[in-house]
Amino acid sequence: MEQIFISYRRDDAAAEAWLLQAKLNDQLCGAHVFLDTLGVTPGADWPDRIRQALDNASAVLVLIGPNWLAASDDWARRKIDLPDDWVRLEIEESLNSKKHIVPILTREAAMPPPDALPKSISQLSSRQAMKLRDAHDIDLIVNHLIDLLRDVAPDGSRGLFPRPAPELPDPLSEEKINIALQGVLHQWCVQKRPLDTLSPHSESSETEQIGLYREYQFQTFEAAISFMNSTATGCDIMNHHPIWENIWRTVRIFLSTWDINHRISDRDVQLAKYFEQSYEIFPTADPAH
Hints:
The chain is of the alpha/beta class. The protein is 36% helix and 19% strand. A 5-stranded parallel beta sheet has the order 2-1-3-4-5, sandwiched between helices. Strands 6-7-9-8 form a 4-stranded antiparallel beta sheet, covered by helices on one side. α4 (86-96) links the parallel β3 and β4 (100-106). The protein is globular and about 55 Å long.
């Protein structure tokens, strides 16, 4: 069975990697889409599992965001220059084995020039890149992969066709939620709310919804509205949408997965990370918050 491998940096394009994996799995059949956070089971040998997935892959998607090249370790060394950097190793292996590599540029990132890359992966710059900005770009990427895998299928068939409804995500345990609310999501909290009777699945026995909550502050009312507008496209691409409201210079966001009885799933964690990344680079965010 053909496979698609997604290579990315978690502190650079994690949200985009998740949404791309979700969209591909939603629309493709006959191709296993590998993403490390979902494809490595607890207890598995992580390096071996990564190498196995790369060996099986027909296509490798390299997600490049604004911080992909400049990302550094605790000693201010560029990660891409380190021989044991897993993103570098994934690209080296893909180039050496002549995989079909597609760079995916996110959030206005540019393709790095050859001389900015280690020599072992400088050929990446010669690969034609695609951009991931909106739902239309997702369709272009999916169609490209359909054509690719159809061409390499042993029996000459398409090998890919629309799937039925995707599997529902699992609710996160309290332990996993607490782990998620560390680091970049330390300003988010768990909040319980009465279940809106107009919400999907409101006919179930559940009477409350549990979600992730955060308030963002901006310098002006117009900036708060602009932030909501600028992040709406990303929410639409993820096909996961917040409950949010604006009060003057404040935007309040509540994230919950309605189709698992309004509980917290990895979809909410990834969307929260997307909001954090967007707020960090938003020009009129209130730096005190």
